[in-house]
Design a protein that fits this description.
191 residues; mainly alpha; elongated; disordered C terminus
Length: 191
Amino acid sequence: MEHLLQLLQGCANNNAKSQKEFYDKYLGFVLKISYRYLNSYEAAAEAANDSFVKIFKNIWKFEIRDPVNVERLLLGWIKRIVINTSIDYMHMELPDWKHRPLQEMELQDSLPRDNADNQLLYKELIELVKRLSPGYRAVFNMHVIDGYPHHDIARLLGISVGTSKSNLAKARAFLQKHLVKDDKENVLCFT
């Protein structure tokens, strides 16, 4: 905890060594978040790097109110920056993302399952989520994974609350369809 406080102070003072250590420590966390929102690893890496620029530029604004829980609070602050940066990249990557429904081919395709104990791994779920259209994926990530309420999602994405709820319902239906389909295929393979 004391080391993290010193690291934060070093970053606030623009100390390059502190910034490098901070970057190395949180890069995986930042990439994991941005990759959930963006179509490619390259776009996620760019969004992650831009997120770190914003973090280092604004780290002096991060208030350490509770030194005991500083890392938990810091991770929440970082997560908010990364999500907003990823949404900005999503707008640049696909300007018409709000109006792209799932393609019929995407609806019929399913991921192969090679897991003998029939458990869906995190990586498989993320790959399935990435097959959602950008609008559905953004709402699903923000609501289900990141815990944003619909009114905040609507404000951040520039859509109505109803559209947010509709996109979430359609994303869930797509995922449920493919999860059930994958489970049935696995049962047939093992009997």
